[in-house]
Amino acid sequence: MKKQLTGLFAILILISCSPSEEELFDEGVRKMESSEYQNAIEYFDRVLDKNPENTSAHNAKGVALYQQDKYDEAIAAFTASIALDDTSYKPFFNRGNAYLEKKEFKNAVLDYNKANGLDPNQGDVYYNRGLALLALEEYEDAIFDFDIVLQVNPDQPLVHFNRAKAQLANNDPVSAIESLVTTVDLDNRNGAAYYLLGVTQMSAFGQKEEGCANLKMALSLGFPEAKEWVDEFCQD
């Protein structure tokens, strides 16, 4: 009897020491924060072994898979999260990001639309949807999304840069020049922006001096596409 009681006591200790669902999830998050994505997935899988309906674990697992460029697996995890609870914008946004990486731009926009409807205050949703719309050649809608992002925080050079690309494609070089000037004012290391600025100044407005200065700056920043323009148009 004494041995049986001892064995039962040991079992009870093991049960009491087993990490809870919340503890496993929190450890998975810590692993993700340390960029230990595969280890994080193992913790989220342990959560799901305990509770297959833990939507946060499905979503977090998807994020860890996304960080490893496993986009199809990530999409499956986000879809599982959505199937259990479609009231959070996060898995829709995250799945949209995975579709964006796969260049499935229409699917990305659908998910960003859903995420935006669930929480219209998320600036990243507008920006990423703008990128997808730009790729779909829906330039006016892309500009609209970039403008919303800049209304909240105008000091974002990449947003200005992508807005400039949409404005150029939308046959508005005047606005594009303004966006590109703002881009390089905010980030003077963006060779692509200097290149696009120089090309637009020269081709749309005949501003050779200004255009050549910006093309040479692009070249000095390691943007090789500028070399052909400099060699052809900017030799003294």
Query: Would you identify the CATH H-level superfamily of the domain at 14-85?
Result: Tetratricopeptide repeat domain
Mean pLDDT: 93
User: Shape from CA axes?
Assistant: elongated
How far apart lie the N and C ends?
101 Å
Number-wise, the strands total 0
CATH class category of the domain at 14-85: Mainly Alpha
Helix content: over 70%
Query: β content, as a range?
Result: under 5%
Biggest β-sheet: count, sense, barrel?
A: none
CATH topology of the domain at 14-85: Serine Threonine Protein Phosphatase 5, Tetratricopeptide repeat
GO molecular function: molecular adaptor activity
TPR repeats: 21-54, 55-88, 89-122, 123-156
Protein name: Tetratricopeptide repeat protein
Keywords: Repeat, TPR repeat
Describe the structure.
It contains 14 helices and no strands. The protein has a domain at 14-85: Tetratricopeptide repeat domain (Serine Threonine Protein Phosphatase 5, Tetratricopeptide repeat), CATH 1.25.40.10. It has 236 residues and is an all-alpha fold. Residues 10-14 have low confidence and may be disordered.
